[in-house]
Design brief:
This protein is an alpha/beta fold and 221 residues long. The chain has two domains: 146 residues, Response regulator (Rossmann fold, 3-Layer(aba) Sandwich); 62 residues, Arc Repressor Mutant, subunit A, CATH 1.10.10. It is 52% helix and 12% strand. The protein contains ten helices and six strands; from the N terminus they run βαβαβαβαβαβααααα. A six-stranded parallel beta sheet has the order 2-1-3-4-5-6, sandwiched between helices. Helix 7 packs across helix 10. The longest helix has 14 residues. The mean pLDDT is 88.
Length: 221
Amino acid sequence: MFQKVLVAEDYESASISVQKSLTDLNIADAGFVYYCDEALALLRKSLDQNKPFDLLITDLSFEEDFAKQNLKSGKELIIEARKLLPTLKILVFSGEKRPLVIKELFEDLEIDGFVSKGRMDVKNLKTAITTIFENKKYISSENLHQLRKTDNIELSLVEFSIIKLLSEGIFQKDMTEILKEKSIKPNSLSSVEKTLNNLKETFAARSTEHLVAICKDLGVL
């Protein structure tokens, strides 16, 4: 099992879940920090002392306060941590739910696991830590199901543009001129209406507002 773990989390309630998980797994050497800059400094110090951390558990979002920070997000911390310790295992523990954002973490940042904050987070954290220690990737069944739902989503330029315009509060009747200005076709009012109807059917959306909400949840926007 991991011997030395660093936790970057700015909420005590979430830290309690992580602490409980580490205690249950008999991991005694764990450091807890509230800021990404502090986490990076400890990672650097552990390397200088030839006692590097085995696992980094980090949130994605950190609220800004009076302490000025260079690293303002978990993503930035992960990028810098990877540069410093390429073999460091990284587990993201976050309230993030959007499948495409989670997918990006695995594909672009090469994280080792993702656990959503929630009712079963202690159980999932313990399973994730054990799985990652065995050199396997971990994602909860709930998040995996959502990821698979998005695998077949491929929007055309005009479809994406229309959804984005909707999210910006642009009315259907005004979209034609905007699409023409951007040389995006088809751009007639009838084609915009047809595209919107097809999108609502594809995403099982009850209204244009519901369509935008679904796309935001899926990480399309």
